[in-house]
Amino acid sequence: xxxxxxxxxxxxxxxxxxxxxDRLCFGGLWSSDSYRRELTNENSHFLGISVAKDLEPATSxxxxxxxxxxxxxxxxxxxxxxxPQYQRQGLGQLLLGxxxxxxxxxxxARATLEVRASNDGAIHLYEKYGFQTVGRxxxxxxxxxxxxxxxxxGGLQHPNFTLIENQPPT
Length: 170
Hints:
Elements: E1 5-9, H1 15-26, H2 32-39, E2 44-51, E3 62-71, E4 74-82, H3 91-105, E5 110-116, H4 120-128, E6 132-141, E7 146-153
Parallel strand pairs: 4-5
Antiparallel strand pairs: 1-2, 2-3, 3-4, 5-7, 6-7
């Protein structure tokens, strides 16, 4: 890939970039007000992948972002998006791994998420990271009426925690 990448928390100053990236990844799922609420909520944890701005001015630096809500001892992953130009280059794996590491650091015991039933690539990624399908939310996605697959992963606080399933601990 050869990009100068940084994974770091996202600030309120970057809302405009998030909204643009949201439109590209999700068709405009959240508004700037929604992002402002999330970024100022102490239970909401946002991470972004940025590329050196002088290399990619069209993306304003942020090429991927993810968020989870800390609810009791569970990290509920609400967003995971990579700019379409940078998909299928391992950045989703990088970001998901960083979200799980952050969840572990703040003592979350498990993680959960919903994903479109048709999103085979995302489902495969989540399975690779130890998530298992535990249910379905019928007609969960309002824009299409598509079902949401509920996925869950435990063991974030286990002493032998690893990110990728069947990977020996280091």
